[in-house]
Write the structure tokens for this entry.
Amino acid sequence: MKRSKIASLLATDTAVGTIVDVRGWVRTRRGNKYVQFVALNDGSTVHNLQIVFDMNKFNDEELKPITTGASIHVTGRLVESQGKGQKYEIQADTLEIYGTADDTYPLQKKGHTLEFLREKAHLRPRTNTFGAVLRVRSALAYAIHKFFHNKGFFYLHTPLITSSDCEGAGAMFQVTTLPLNELPRTDEGNVDYSQDFFGKPTALTVSGQLEGELGATAIGEIYTFGPTFRAENSNTQRHLSEFWMIEPEMAFYDITDNMDLAEEFVKYCIRYVLDHCRDDIEFLAEHYDKELIDRLEFVLHNDFVRLTYTEGVEILEKSGHKFEFPVSWGVDLQSEHERYLVEKHFKKPVILTDYPKEIKAFYMKQNEDGRTVRAMDVLFPQIGEIIGGSEREADFGKLKQRIDELHIPMKDMCWYLDTRRYGTVPHSGFGLGFERLLLFCTGMTNIRDVIPFPRTPKNCEF
Ligand code: 4AD
Ligand code: MG
């Protein structure tokens, strides 16, 4: 027989009364000598399907290996359940045991802490919580592609191994095949990268934006969606060393168009999750964050507040609030400042624009005031910064001057400057941290819990 997924059996009543074939992992078994009940989960939904074994048809020995974690295959009739807690159940006819799980199986009881499950990250997908998170993650990835395709954007594949440093922060993972114990040296004593695999220093990308701009200034509107790597030693609840980023880049967009797109985009994602992942979101809300659904609805139904960095800093200064990091014009905002604006002051998502140029990347469009650039950060409750972006400097002279001021080696930037040298256009883009969006949508608080295999400083399992 062909396997049915539990999600589809529970979704409609069309299979009721028919013989079905289900396969999955046992969550629990209980019962007495007349009847035994098995809660079966196959990962297609957070809900288990109850399998009823009539002990006139089965014997104790057959059912003995059915312990928590075992994998089984059952056929039987799907019927309406008389018991509480479930709509349908299966009256088992046949049983096949694929694999047993003895009492060393780490996920014996319910209600393990997230910390414990992080230690067992190879098995945690089998829990309800991580099943829910992984399904939401997959749905959201699909929604993102759908959103951009509906708008006529092209999906551009930017490289993961790169020879340029987009954000200029220097927090890159070097990629090399040179023997680290006996590095080849030039006559001056420097590492001789001409002997390295690519013949020059290379690293994992911190952002696909610069290559994204090459795409946007040719085919108009593009987005990237892929892994991104940052070797910052940040051990926080919101930083990963390997995370996924979505970076749209659009020709002929100014910063207002950019903000409009960012707002529409995140609202689309949230709507999609509410419409398509309801069971998982309800499960997560019940177990981790009672206000989750209200918060998602709230963001959907309110305009984001837009104000400048300068106005934001004024509000923070006047607030009288004691921040751990003092705030004044020119400082890079910490997440406590961002969250104050969003959670305490406006009680809405905020888009902050026009930051001091010193704290932002070289490629941002310079304002007439000579002090600020046309940056935009989208700040969210619980998360802080979820999106960073800007209108780009389209003027060749101004961009080159900024590159010189920051001592970025010009030979590395020639290709990028060609977009301004030939047929330059106003353009804009932003980057959304996929896992930060997932934190918001799932109510999880630690970013290690929304990616299957987290990479953080001193932690790279599997
Ligand atoms: O603000 P960032 O550094 O911006 C860029 O990389 C631009 N090149 C984007 C662009 O304009 N195309 O990063 C963008 C977003 C942040 O707002 C945050 O959501 C996420 O990426 N992010 C991280 N997420 C998880 N772990 C980290 N270490 C992250 N660093 C940034
Ligand atoms: Mg940023």
Q: What stands out?
A: Residues 385, 388 surround magnesium ion (ligand 2) (CB under 6 Å). The longest helix spans residues 128-150. The chain has a mean pLDDT of 96.
